[in-house]
């Protein structure tokens, strides 16, 4: 790229050889906003602004990362989820818009003033549990993940939102959890999870996802069901009677085998995402 380049030149550039993504223009706008510390409106009202050498160099190096397929969320170190920019970094699963369905499903079932004890299985960046805490001011959260980097990121997000004193972070395998491991004396009202649910041999997964996101966040046995089964069992002995477990599943995932997994848990409802796919399942722990 030559030296005298404006905001408008960059946004309109089509022959940068850069671009494989469908959302190139959007990506350029986001990268430029990052470099110029501004929002999109600023870009469109400063179309003729020249980038100085330092800004151009910074833009180019961010763009080079994008060119090799690194997800925008890792480049920008943030991903918007339920109205908030969560910090993310390489090594940690990027929050997805469809997971907002899980948060909405929970919110449609609980009174915001209740003093809930919540566990987030496989918390990743913390996007599900921390979004819920924002709506439940009296709730407390235990965030569990097997990935230490994810827990660190989740801690940063809790700190950024001023929620640290309401969250306990546990670096554990969910399948090994029991009440003792969680140091819980009070009953658990609500468990949420977006477990890994992709089958090992599923070749529909986008190449960039497999290349850049942590495999332990994605894959779950031959049918993509290992974690779904195992975590439902764990939920069944951590929840209080009447307590709820909400978890995400893949588009068209065959969950019929869950019918006979746990007799202490009853399926209550399923929720669709904005595209009309069933993505969230709600179970309730039986009374007595
Ligand atoms: C699909 S990601 C979801 C992350 C986050 N909840 C979200 O929705 O963006 C699954 C998460 O589960 C974690 N995980 C995978 N296996 C686990 C296990 N056995 N115990 C605890 N966490 C696990 C991964 O590290 C990853 O952070």
Which terms summarize this structure?
9 strands; 10 helices; alpha/beta; binds S-adenosylmethionine; Rossmann fold; 288 residues
Description:
With 288 residues, the protein is an alpha/beta fold. The chain folds into 2 domains: 7-68; 82-285, 3-Layer(aba) Sandwich (Rossmann fold), CATH 3.40.50. It is 33% helix and 19% strand. It contains 10 helices and 9 strands. The protein has helices at 7-12, 24-36, 40-45, 53-67, 72-76, 100-107, 127-135, 148-160, 207-212, 226-238, and strands at 78-81, 84-87, 117-121, 140-144, 167-170, 188-193, 239-248, 265-272, 278-285. A 7-stranded mixed sheet has the order 5-4-3-6-7-9-8, with helices on both faces. A two-stranded antiparallel sheet has the order 1-2. Helix 8 (148-160) links the parallel strand 4 and strand 5 (167-170). Helix 2 (24-36) packs antiparallel against helix 4 (53-67). The termini are far apart. The mean pLDDT is 92. The structure holds S-adenosylmethionine (SAM). S-adenosylmethionine binds next to helix 7.
Précis, in short:
The chain is an alpha/beta fold and about 290 residues long.
């Amino acid at each position: 790229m030559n030296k005298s380049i404006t905001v408008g030149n960059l946004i309109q550039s089509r022959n940068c050889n850069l671009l494989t993504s469908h959302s190139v223009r959007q990506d350029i706008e986001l990268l430029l906003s990052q470099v110029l510390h501004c929002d999109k409106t600023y870009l469109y009202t400063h179309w003729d602004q020249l980038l100085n050498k330092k800004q151009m160099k910074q833009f180019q190096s961010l763009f080079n990362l994008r060119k090799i397929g690194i997800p925008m969320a890792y480049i920008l170190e943030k991903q918007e989820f339920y109205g908030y920019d969560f910090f993310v970094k390489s090594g940690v699963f990027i929050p997805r818009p469809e997971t907002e369905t899980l948060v909405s499903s929970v919110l449609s079932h609980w009174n915001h003033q209740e003093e809930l004890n919540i566990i987030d299985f496989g918390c990743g960046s913390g996007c599900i549990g921390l979004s819920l805490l924002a709506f439940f001011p009296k709730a407390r959260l235990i965030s569990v993940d097997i990935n230490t980097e994810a827990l660190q990121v989740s801690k940063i997000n809790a700190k950024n939102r001023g929620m640290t004193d309401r969250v306990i972070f546990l670096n554990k395998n969910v399948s090994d959890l029991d009440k003792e491991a969680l140091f819980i004396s009070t009953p658990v009202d609500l468990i949420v999870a977006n477990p890994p649910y992709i089958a090992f041999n599923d070749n529909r997964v986008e190449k960039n996802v497999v290349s850049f996101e942590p495999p332990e966040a994605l894959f779950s046995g031959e049918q993509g069901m290992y974690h779904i089964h195992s975590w439902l069992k764990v939920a069944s002995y951590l929840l209080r009677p009447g307590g709820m477990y909400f978890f995400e599943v893949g588009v068209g995932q065959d969950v019929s085998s869950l019918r006979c997994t746990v007799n202490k848990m009853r399926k209550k409802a399923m929720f669709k995402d904005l595209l009309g796919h069933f993505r969230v399942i709600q179970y309730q722990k039986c009374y007595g």
